[in-house]
Amino acid sequence: MTSKDIPQTPEPEGSDGVAGDPGDLGGVGPGEAIEAPELEDEQAEPGSIAPAASAASAATPQSPDQESPDREAAATEDAAPEGDAADSPAPERSARTAGEDLRERSKALLGSLSARSRGEGWERPEGELAKYRSRWRAAVRFVLQRGFFGAVVASNLTTSREVHRRVRTVRGPFVLVANHSSHIDAPMLARCLPWAQARFLSTGVAADYFFTVWYRRLFVRLLFNAFPIDRGGSRRHSGTSRKLLRSGVPILVFPEGTRQLDGVLADFKPGGAALAISVGVPVIPAAIIGAHEAMPKGRSWPKPGRPPVRVVFGEPMISEVGETAVEFSTRIHARVKDLYDEHRDVILGDAARGEEGSA
What we know:
Blueprint: H1 50-59, H2 69-79, H3 90-112, H4 116-120, H5 135-156, E1 158-163, E2 175-178, H6 185-192, H7 195-198, E3 202-206, H8 207-210, H9 214-224, E4 227-229, H10 240-246, E5 251-253, H11 271-279, E6 283-289, H12 291-294, E7 308-313, H13 325-348, H14 350-358
Parallel strand pairs: 1-7, 2-5, 2-6, 3-4, 3-5
Antiparallel strand pairs: 6-7
């Protein structure tokens, strides 16, 4: 028998094996909130569904005049009245699909924070900015923060920390946002953050005080990898924080603007959230509990008795599609407050409960 003697099965209509476009699983365009690198081993190949569809159609041959169930369903759907919402679930299905797409996008973006390309795909700092990614300065900072300052802290405070597991996987720049009520906040955050993330962490300090005298400038740069912030209307150093983020340097921001006299969390200014959105980097929320009670504003040394202080780093956050800086800042504020309230009674104990009773 030759191939000509084999009866040919006619190709059913509408069974061309095309399953549709693969879809976007989380890639973000240049104009959106955050640029996420391509995800590996998570996106289906564009033609991965087609072979299965072709095999199914080949296994069930149909005559030329026999319509497929899909065509019958499509015909029935087209015949339904357009104005009847009960018989046409398309709007509900579209809303559900949009919600699922948003969840998939958020999951993909959070997963991409640990991608190796995030840590390597930033501008190479040049000139003055190169100092902020200096390896020898980072080594000196490690000795000062984890050695010298660590010994001073251990002899005067009872410290503890809690780090969300996703924080340890973040690569590349980010914005660290925390409450602010004491002079020990910045060094405590730098000391408690895992070194892989804290290695190049940079803190903004007042330019008119710390950067006008050489020994103060040297001290804050070695200990905090500090960059200058203008006060009093000057714009000499405007844009430095954005340049640092684009050069792969994470920055620490206290969005309350100043230390709080009563230790109560104040409203956040949206500057930190706006930075994260404009550059496309995540925000790591952090809460410092007990710093105000240990060393409030006006004291130059912690209170005696090694008072307890805990630093809590929450899950990294990313801005949602279409979210404004004010809205994102409000979400960050709520997360920091939740972290603080969750650990407040454990750290402060009777003192915290006494304040609530008097209020």
